[in-house]
């Protein structure tokens, strides 16, 4: 952070003052807080530190000067101006030698330069510095406010703050995870402040990380967050005001964002209830209006059950890493329900996201149409229950349903039944005259829904109807019978596992 205060070097460079550096020239980069003329040999009780002390050395000589200089160092003064031509024609040599030894800059002030001239020069610089600080503070606050109320959001405020203070900024959530960072490399400092975060309950904590001074400031939100600011040196007054403004704006933005997110989650749950109630047209219209798109039917439904915090984390991950045209999701009781398009790759992506969170048991339904959504939810929840009973992360309903019944049937008898029932279809397919087995499987997976199954197969629905009539003809069985469909489904499941 640039410090605009007048330094000893700048004061010495003013020709009109005629100051001559006599000791500790290396320390001339020190800023001057104020000027204090005194003839006391021990003025410590009247000093705050950072002053340029002015004296004519009325009570000083070669013997007392070394102790005097050391007392000034203890008081933290920035430097000493020694007026010559009054009490002393020149500065006592012991004073110069001691000042050089301890690093306290000493100016020789000529008799023609009144102390008031030095005081005025410093006063003008201090006033200019304070004015510049006020201007910088006001400008910084305006820029942060414009960013916060614009489209930048919390991330924009963090980036703007980092630019205004010339440092790096991190925004952490209640778990200490980075939600925003500027620049991106600032994430590297997170581990360095972990212990300080653990000690911080509320308010402000100042620490150091390498050569950086770091300020940790809690945000005034119900969900406890922390702003972490790092600079090359201590923040000046303007920098402190700017950081305080950022804390206020971020607290407000995050609280409003939290309420907005909560409202959207309630909306999702309400839309899910409408879907279960068969109002798919209304729901798809609402999804397109609010999120810009909606998954097209047919769908696969997923249910993931787990502790509240885990479900919240999974919900947040779905918000961040899925597209509205592929996935719709919502909280429902003790589970998160995710409805995906029929593409298995999208379903697999949702399952992988759940695995990243961990600590949940999930299941998926068969592919269902809009009118069958409630049925799909029940299948997904049943499969999730099976996953929990097995201690598994995820179980597809197809796998659960097939294993559940097949486990009750002798495997050799089931295989013989499957081979016998499907043999005519396989023989027909081997001649290259059709795809009866694949078509029958798809048709059954879609519960006899001609449009959905034909779309999935990429054929006209009349073609699919002809294939199913051929299945009935070759096997001598009526596909309109639920029992016959169940037998074919069992035969196909046995065949798939053989």
UniProtKB/TrEMBL annotation:
The record's listing under InterPro entries reads: CdaR-like_regulators, PucR_C-HTH_dom, PucR_C-HTH_sf, PucR_dom
| Annotated Purine catabolism PurC-like domain residues | 12-125
The PucR C-terminal helix-turn-helix domain extends over 436-493
One Pfam family it belongs to: PucR
Q: What is this protein called?
A: PucR family transcriptional regulator
Q: Which organism is it from?
A: Amycolatopsis thailandensis
